[in-house]
Amino acid sequence: MSSASDTPAGASHRPRFGVNYTPRIGWFHAWHDLDLDAVGEDLRAISDLGLDHVRVFPLWPLLQPNRTLIRPGALADVRSVVDVAASVGLDVVVDVVQGHLSSFDFVPSWLHSWHRRNMFTDPEVVNSIADLVRALGETLADAPNLLGLSMGNEINQFSASNHPDPDALTVPQAEQWTRTMLEAARTAVPTGLHTVSNYDAAWFMDDHAFTPDQSAQLGDATVVHSWIFDGTGQRYGARSYEVEHRAEYYLELARGFSPTPDRPLWLQEVGAPRSILEQDDVPWFVQRTVETAMDCPNLYGITWWCSHDVSPDLADFPPLEHTLGLFDTHGRIKESGAAFGEAVAAALQSPTPADRGTAIDLHVGTEPLLQRSAAAPGGSVFEQWMDASRSGERPTVRVVREHAAARAGDTRTGGAAATRS
């Protein structure tokens, strides 16, 4: 087992392989009435698959039900899960500010309805969220298997123009919010690997206040969440070259914004959605996603979404959420889980990738808002990259800080696309 302090950000290391932990019993509602025996069974199965870490998601309203109340018992529950993970040889990333999970929002009552406030710009709210980050970090700081904190699971979706009730903000305000949360994490856990976990609106939507520069320059690694229901699968088809190389492309797009050549890239979410893939496609997709991502230099790790299927007894989920797990609701390994385990075992034996080849130019212009939709599926940069990849050029992306004519791609990003499936 290793901790973030063993491998500083930017250092060369073998990529890590893990899974986003979705409790088998009760899904994330399990945090209401935590059963550590059940958690231990789930985590032991994950460890037995050959994985080395999990990302966990304590629910924000349980941790901080009032703006000035952070529940000690809820913090202790998170520490208990981290300690159980240690007992089975797993490191842990703890995601703070939940936020948004599988199409459901988990926002405390002091932020909506009669108490509606902007979570990103209201000074009292921002300070209270930072207090939560510090409190959770302090609870976990001495856990030897803590990798670090990730700031919200796609919390940037609350500001997106396609959200049903967005919290409006500017690019500078989004950057300041991110800096504030990362500074709180660093204060509490000085040696942790702390990241911001934005979904792909930050990379593809021209009007989005959270930008690629923020994702690539703030925190200790650049995080991407790669989902083929973002228009890639719908436009090109389940077994298409574009689906096969979607995560690899996204990592190379992220590299284009990196401030230093050795900045780590983390494929923190990727999954095999049955809204796009047939059952027979899933093992192929799992294996090829891992294989193609491994051709990206400076890959910190791959964290699959997700560990366990959502029980069919739980209502109102998009249908794909009931099938994304590596294990079923009885804890039995699925074909996707076996494929991921095999892909990880092979990846651990693979050579370090060489530098990438041809650079495809992405003209983004200058702040405050960036011209980035050409990088989305169907956009001119996306398709130039895929054409170069087909011809064997192993392309990357070069960001050019000036405007140029470009064809916009499909920006049906993230949760909105999944919810409609």
What would your notes on this structure say?
Helix content is about 35%, strand content about 15%. By secondary structure, it is an alpha/beta fold. The protein has a single domain (about 10-350), classed as Glycosidases (TIM Barrel, Alpha-Beta Barrel). Helix 5 (about 170-190) links the parallel strand 6 and strand 7 (about 195). It is globular, with a radius of gyration of 20 Å. The chain starts with 15 loop residues before the first strand and ends with a helix. Mean pLDDT is about 95; it is low at about 1-10 and about 415-420.
Give keywords.
421 residues; alpha/beta; TIM Barrel; 8-stranded parallel beta sheet; two-stranded antiparallel ribbon; 33% helix; globular; disordered C terminus
Summary of the model, kept short:
The chain has 421 residues and is an alpha/beta fold.
SSE diagram, text form:
Blueprint: E1 16-20, H1 36-48, E2 53-56, H2 60-63, H3 72-87, E3 91-96, E4 100-101, E5 104-105, H4 123-140, E6 146-153, H5 171-188, E7 195-197, H6 201-204, H7 212-217, E8 222-226, H8 232-236, H9 241-244, H10 246-256, E9 265-270, H11 282-293, E10 299-305, H12 335-347, E11 359-363, H13 380-390, E12 396-400, H14 414-419
